[in-house]
Amino acid sequence: MQSLPTEATCLQRVAASFERQAVMRTMGIRLGKVAAGQVDLHMAHHPDLTQQHGFLHAGVLSTALDSACGYAAFSLMPPQAAVLTIEFKINLLAPARGPSFRFEGRVTKRGRTISVVDGQAFQITDGSPETLIASMSATVMTVLGRDAIQQ
Amino acid sequence: MQSLPTEATCLQRVAASFERQAVMRTMGIRLGKVAAGQVDLHMAHHPDLTQQHGFLHAGVLSTALDSACGYAAFSLMPPQAAVLTIEFKINLLAPARGPSFRFEGRVTKRGRTISVVDGQAFQITDGSPETLIASMSATVMTVLGRDAIQQ
Amino acid sequence: MQSLPTEATCLQRVAASFERQAVMRTMGIRLGKVAAGQVDLHMAHHPDLTQQHGFLHAGVLSTALDSACGYAAFSLMPPQAAVLTIEFKINLLAPARGPSFRFEGRVTKRGRTISVVDGQAFQITDGSPETLIASMSATVMTVLGRDAIQQ
Amino acid sequence: MQSLPTEATCLQRVAASFERQAVMRTMGIRLGKVAAGQVDLHMAHHPDLTQQHGFLHAGVLSTALDSACGYAAFSLMPPQAAVLTIEFKINLLAPARGPSFRFEGRVTKRGRTISVVDGQAFQITDGSPETLIASMSATVMTVLGRDAIQQ
Question: For the domain that residue D21 is a member of, what is the CATH number?
Answer without folding.
Answer: 3.10.129.10
